[in-house]
Amino acid sequence: MTPATPTTHVLEALRARLMAEYAPVNRLRSPLVRAMWLSPLAALALLAAPLVFGMRPDAVRLGPGLTWGASSVQALIAFALLVAALRESVPGRAWSWPWAVVWLTAPIALLGLVTAASWEASPVLLRSEWGLVGVACFVGSAASALPVVALAGILAASAYPTRPALAGALLGLGAGLMADAGWRLFCHFSEPAHVLSAHLGAVLVSVLLGSVLASAICRARRRS
């Protein structure tokens, strides 16, 4: 009989530990299905501002294309970002860096185009209380995105992403863009300086929060 070696003891201990912890797990749903779980919160982020505060005064001048039409396109891109983030969170299905850059930059460009088109169709300046209105739009839009950021962060971390910061940034961008799609329907001002500071600022904060949250949850799960 071959005498037991230290390596044998280690392998037996490892095998015993694996057998003790062995348990069936639920199959991970597809990114699209998991993103659908976020749809009620995403819809709330989109509809909250116009339903609670009403539509912007220049909605008739902008027309349906630059109100609900533009916001609907923005919301669809935001939902696609949530799907992309949940795919990124699955090991082995991460996006290549060129695609990751596209996902991070194209939605910002879209927001810029919508801002420029709205300003061209209805130039409404923010003449007074610039700081107060800016803070209100920033806080309102960011707060609308928070529930989506929180739940999406948990869903992303549950897949054990290899790049949690990137997955969180994508989901934060999707949540922020969704919230802005609704908040712009209420905001009275189309001045680009206001939109690109307060509204885009809220989106970028959502990106940062998503990245930090997903990374923190992943670190906590690895320690447990």
Sheet-strand content, in percent, reads under 5%
Q: Give a short account of the largest sheet.
A: none
Radius of gyration: 22 Å
Count of DSSP H/I helices: 8
Question: Helix fraction?
Answer: over 70%
Can you tell me the overall shape?
elongated
Q: Indicate the mean pLDDT.
A: 89
Question: How many strands appear in the DSSP assignment?
Answer: 0
**Separation of the first and last Cα atoms:** 40 Å
Short summary:
This protein has eight helices and no strands.
What features would you describe in this structure?
This protein is mainly α. It is built from eight helices and no strands. α3 (about 40-55) runs antiparallel to α6 (about 130-155) and α4 packs antiparallel against α5. The protein is elongated, with a radius of gyration of 22 Å. The mean pLDDT is about 90.
